[in-house]
Amino acid sequence: MASPAQLREAEAAAKDANVRALSAAQALTNLGLPVRREDYQKLSPSESAARLRLVGLEDVPEAERKALPANLLPVRAPFPGVVLAAEVVAGEVVEGGKTLFEVVDPRQVVLTIHVASVDAGRLAVSQKAWFRPDGGGDEHAGTVTSVGTAAEESTRTVPVRVAASNALGTLRASTLGRGRVVLRETTKSLLIPHGAVHSFRGQSIVFVRDPAFLTPNGAKAFSARVIQTGGRDEANTEVLSGLVAGDIVSTKGSAFLLGALTRAAAGR
Q1: pTM of the predicted model, to two decimals?
Q2: Which of 106, 111, 152, 145 is nearest to 127 (CA)?
Q3: Is CATH 2.40.420.20 the right assignment for the domain spanning 191-265?
């Protein structure tokens, strides 16, 4: 017959064992090896140990399972994919917290587009984006999932994350290329070449040819005009205001005109 002290000790030991069992089951579940306590409650300690030894090895042939040592723990990926990098070799002893394999799902990729700080304020989550890898090929469509809150120190650009489908597997990890984000969609836009737009005293300007430039007595002159710019693509800049369709702007010679304007503004 047990004394009250022995009974209390037994109850405390039972509670402690229950907590440790719950903790062990949760630890295995976190590793992708779900274990139900009720499946082991009616088993003897040796039977429980033999069953736990095979957890996660259901896909391994039974003959191979029996030959495996008891101190091995299966490693399961949290999702189906391919191994991108392996940080261990067969037979190596590893410790908890060490990265063993880098597994990716190649059907869905995350692209990083580096955007100039002045343009980052126009971007928002859910905008459409496109990416073309270096070397040509088709553009890949995606959706903006996040816009960085700070510019990178080395490039002074803001990273923009884009989720894109890669069902055909044509996009490879660490691929470089050119990306673009669709700010808005419109049926009509006024576009001019990038080379025609200049920055002068904090404003965007272009040099517009006089309408009578080609007439015999017309003024052979270009005038500076302040414009408001919108989106950009690989070759052109969108003009939101300051120009109308039919205006002719200087492109190749605009740098010379900018120099003349700068000298005139400085009184030289």
Answers
A1: 0.56
A2: 145
A3: yes
